[in-house]
Design brief:
Layout: E1 4-11, E2 14-20, E3 24-32, E4 35-42, E5 52-59, E6 64-70, E7 73-75, E8 89-97, E9 102-106, E10 110-112, E11 117-126, E12 131-140, E13 149-158, E14 161-171, E15 185-193, E16 205-208, E17 213-220, E18 232-234, E19 237-239, H1 241-244
């Protein structure tokens, strides 16, 4: 299987783009100055047992890359009498960000079906001045299912050392108190790097990292119930879907005056 490669490098006032892939195919959406938008498209139905996705991302100095998933990811299983039934699916992404580079990745849900097993990892290496903001949604099972097995590692570092290291090992049929408990969905927005931070969103937990970043997290039973569902990620800020929609026009009345109310100040989670 051909690894997916997305490389953005500065060239004069613009950039050069190198895009290739098999299971996950990168498609150029827009290129303007040193800012590039790329869609990640599934090459076929996936992930099946034994499938292995590897995504390599490189963002050059002073460049900005916005990635968007086209369609979510479903981790399928096979019947017990299938020769490949016990083979796990794998998904691994590694991103290298050069000095002052920016990465935004709006991921769609990854669903681990009852018969599925997924081993996944996300590794980000940040040079000075680089920032990354991404959303990832992990779902145990389709509707009516308890979900399969998941082992997920996240590792973010810069020149000074680790920024975020997290490991999640769960089974849908064996919920563990203190990890996900009875929740099926873990929806997260992660912002890391130079001056990275996130504002609080009602219904989520804001976790400020020891340095250079923060995590917004929702645990629940349905992805569409997450306050982060449909959110817009831009410049290290999360705009929930409800706030992103334009306001409905108000009926005209010569007797009623309206004014914009200030947004409440974001709360900080201890």
């Amino acid at each position: 299987m051909i690894p997916t490669v997305v490389e953005i490098r500065p060239r004069g006032e613009g950039v050069t783009c190198s895009l290739e892939g098999d299971l996950v195919v990168p498609r150029l959406i827009r290129r303007r100055g040193r800012s590039v938008d790329v869609a990640l498209v599934a090459g076929r139905a996936m992930l099946l047992p034994g499938d292995e996705v590897r995504i390599r991302i490189l963002v050059g100095a002073g460049c900005a890359l916005s990635l968007v998933d086209i369609g979510g990811l479903v981790v399928y299983g096979r019947s017990d009498d299938d020769a490949h039934a016990d083979r796990e699916s794998q998904w691994h992404a590694h991103a290298d960000l050069a000095a002052d580079a920016r990465l935004t990745w709006l991921g769609l849900p990854t669903v681990i079906t009852a018969a599925g097993t997924l081993v996944r990892s996300l590794t980000i290496a940040l040079a000075p001045g680089a920032t990354a903001t991404l959303r990832e949604t992990l779902v145990l099972g389709r509707s009516g299912e308890r979900g399969g097995r998941l082992h997920s590692d996240t590792d973010v570092t810069d020149a000074a050392g680790p920024i975020l290291r997290e490991t999640l090992a769960i089974r849908g049929d064996e919920p563990v108190v203190g990890i996900l408990g009875s929740a099926r969905v873990m929806d997260s927005v992660v912002a890391v790097g130079a001056d990275a931070g996130l504002d609080a969103v009602p219904g989520t937990t804001l976790l400020d990292l020891d340095r250079s970043g923060a995590v917004l997290r929702y645990l629940g039973d349905a992805a569409h119930d997450s306050p982060l569902s449909g959110s817009i990620l831009a410049d290290g800020r999360v705009t929930p879907a409800a706030a992103a929609r334009p306001a409905s026009p108000q009926p005209h009345s010569s007797h009623v005056a309206t004014e914009a109310l200030p947004l409440p100040s974001p709360s900080q989670t201890p």
